[in-house]
Amino acid sequence: MADSPRLSTQTASTAAQPEQGNTKDTSTTILENKFIPDPFLVSFDEDDPANPKNWSFAKKWYLTLAGGLLVLNATFSSSAPSALVPTFMEEFGISQEVGTLTVSLFVCGYCVGPLIWGPLSEQYGRRPIFIISFFIYMVMLPIGCALSQNITSILIFRFLGGTFAAAPLANSGALISDIWDAKGRGTALAVFTVAPFAGPGIGPVAGVCWLQIVFTIPETYTPVLLAKKAKEMRKRTGDERYHAAIESQNMTLSQRLESILARPFKVLFHEPMLIAITLYMSFVYGCIYLLFEAYPVVFTKGHNLNAGVSGLMFLPLPIGGILAVITYILFFNPDYERKAQECAPNPVPPEFRLRVAMISAPFFAVSFFWFAWTSFPSISIWAPMISGALLGWSICLIFLALFNYIIDAYLAVAASALAANTVVRSLFGAGFPLFANQMYDRLGPEWASTLLGFIALIMMPIPFVLTRYGPILRFKSKYAPSGPLPTSSPA
Fold it and tell me: φ and ψ at 439, to 5 degrees?
């Protein structure tokens, strides 16, 4: 019947054969049974419309943009109080460092949230995690901040806000991996990656985001969808033997908690590739938040601009991000599609994604040197401001390349790998603003930015090294599926 759920029904005749004496060795029987498919294990057929990867092109793009909007909202909220720091200092009699904690503690919440939301989404699905976390973030925490009578309460609610707002940072990327195959995922992530850089320039729309989740975002996680289908099959047929793979996981509460809380770190600390990528992305991410403190030093103090005009100096960052998306779609993605046809039916090696980072990483270092030595008050503000466009372009492409690499290399545990990556990135994002003012005051804008440029230069070889040794590391990896070692570099 057309409306009946589709499932794999392959059987093996040997499964029903009676045991014939003791002539067959037990170990042989076990080895043979390993290859007998379970006729009651529910799975998708090739063209099953319930499979998220078979959804329409328009629906996939809507969900991609919706996931990007959730990240955009969370990243805006992280930096929203930065302009209120002087008000907090005057109202509560606090130092600038304590005022900066309103931003840093929100970002610290990104360290805790992904540890919870990423693995939980791999147990219960993406949709319920989005709904619960964004409802608390949208309703309860803003009310708490508004009614706070002291800075301590504000800081506590800011930290909790970051924890609940962190769900899309780990799960939106996983949602994209749920619905797109490797060929289409690059373009989707190109648009998605702009969100963290456009966030600081766009107003909060949390209420709209939550309603959007409730009414328009379906479940996309395949194991959870198969569990739902198996439940429907049991109800329809009355046969309790139909089951999904995720339902076969008999775990105690302690094992489940260990899986939820420890899995991201297990993946991270067992994977040298992920450690290297995470350190590089964390430095880049920390630099983004450091600029919220560095730009006022250069433009407000150095060029005597007021706070409103100084805020406009950030506009080249998202503009550079948009140009990066255009660059990727027009130049890099067609190359990947050609590579996909060349490698078919096998997947493209994940290292091919690193070409984008190999090109953009040098420009990331150059942009800091540009910003550094055009920061003199005697030089037009246009020179350091335009360096932000190159910075935004290179950051977006670096993130895009490395996000794609993580998802391609760790597809089965993408949410946990992204969660671990997000936790470490958020530590850098929270920590960098705390020393930015002191660094720029003591070293001066020129040498402070030069120092960042040299660090970027030191970390620049990471994508080059992974391109060379990534296949070997994946071949030895526990979490990254790998085929035979290539005879030459995939990139």
Answer: -65, -45
H helices within 296-413, ranges in order?
A: 307-312, 316-327, 333-343, 355-372, 382-409
Sign of CA dihedral 478, 483, 488, 491: negative
Residue 41: strand pairing partners = 243
Q: Are 114 and 419 in contact (CB under 8 A)?
A: yes
* Amino acid letter, residue 475: F
324's CB contacts (< 8 A; 6+ apart) are: 190, 193, 194, 360, 392, 393, 394, 396, 397, 400
Alpha helices (H) in 125-202, listed in sequence order? 126-135, 141-147, 151-165, 167-179, 182-192, 195-198
Amino acid at 91: E
130 contact partners, CB below 8 Å, separation of at least 6: 70, 167, 168, 171, 213, 217
| Cα separation, 275 vs 272, whole angstroms | 5
| Residue 264 pLDDT class (50, 70, 90 cuts) | confident
**Does residue 175 carry a pLDDT above 60?**
yes
- Summarised one tens digit per residue, pLDDT across range 375-418 is 999 999 999 999 999 999 999 999 999 988 998 898 878 778 88
For residue range 51-86, list pLDDT tens digits in order: 999 999 999 999 998 888 888 777 777 777 776 777
Task: Say which DSSP state 18 is in.
Answer: P
User: pLDDT-based confidence at 173, cuts 50/70/90?
Assistant: confident
Structure tokens of 148?
């706070």
The most distant pair of C-alpha atoms in the chain lies apart, rounded to whole Å, by: 95
Specify the pTM: 0.76
Does an H or E element contain 432, and which? helix 414-459
Q: Two tokens at 386?
A: 């335009």
CB burial of residue 131 (10 Å; 0-12, 13-18, 19+): middle
